[in-house]
Amino acid sequence: MKIGIVCYPTYGGSGVVATELGKALAQKGHQVHFISYRAPARLDSFVENVFYHEVSFADYPLFERAPYETALSSKIVDVAKFEQLDLLHVHYAIPHAATAYMAKQILKTHGIHLPYITTLHGTDITLVGKDATYAPVVTFSVNQSDGVTAVSQSLKDETYQNFPITREIEVIPNFVDMNRFRKAKKEHFKIAIAPAGEKILIHASNFRKVKRPEDVVKVFKKVHDEIPAKLLLVGDGPERQNMEQLCRDLNLMDDVRFLGKLDPVEELLAVSDLFLMPSETESFGLAALEAMACHVPVISTNTGGIPEIVVNGQTGFMSNVGDIDSMAGNALMLLNNENMLNQFKNQAAEHARQFDLIKVLPKYEAYYEKVLQQGLVDA
Ligand code: GMT
Fold first, then answer.
1. 290-324 residue pLDDT tens
2. Cα-based distances in Å from 340 to 198, 224, 314, 331, 375
3. What domains are there in the chain, each with its CATH number?
């Protein structure tokens, strides 16, 4: 198949999923064409069968902001015609589903049929998409999609609750490459981070408010008050400054490390004891799954799709949003009991296997086939 993939190139989960999916499809012999305004962060090495098409948009004094949607639709048209794409798969509804619709209509006037699949990732539905600014376009372009997938049952339910969606939504969960995210011996890292054998807690995100990054620090403070511990913070984003200030105010800076946007997060997960995810909402929680694959249990909230990956009392513990005491108490219960912690570590990795890339990839391939077949029937 010749598949076009449209995604955000940034470190957000939707871009990661789109890029890893594209690379894996290419390895199975499909030809994959990424279309974005920058090369996706995880497209960091040469992969046969993978092509990248950059959307450039000319600035003009009349525009306060260059019209990316117009440039993206034009680029999709261009790539679809020249590369003879069979299918377009767009990740994150805003604005990608609408641009795909526009491209499809333009291609129709050229006698070309380009079906498009929209994958809903979360904030495109739960946060941004719900806003009246975007809702009519999101609803329309999702309903016009030839196929719609959601990364969790929770997101599917929430989509139907919030939008008059008439399309059937297929749940295809996010996945993890268990060859990359696995237990690894990184003793030198451990010694550098926790020289006195302190427990290592880790959080990775885009430090947006929805991740409740302050709760990460507050939970860590309670743990740190009881046992020697270190906190690793991977990522960056708008709340970084506030987090840093809070760590200073709580006198934690000696034991907290802000690592920035570090790509090989698996190397740090390999030395970590617990992953913290106190999010307000999380359609899936890919970062938690990647942690589990690396034998790191998760202390999280019980919101959105998290309960679909974390097994409470087996691969981690879940608490209500904002319940710092509960999350800190659960973290301490595990960190103070070496046997229990090791058991949870093994159970986390075992459970993550359900979401192994090699198990999820065929679900996408089968769905692509179904959509293409449906197109033949409709034509
Ligand atoms: O919030 C983020 O981390 C970024 C956002 C994105 O689309 O880039 O993530 C969403 O999609 C991820 C991949 O499907 C999910 O794992 C995240 O749970 C989801 N974020 C939220 O729902 C807040």
1. 999 999 999 999 999 999 999 999 999 999 999 99
2. 17, 19, 9, 11, 52
3. 2-175+357-378 (3.40.50.2000), 187-355 (3.40.50.2000)
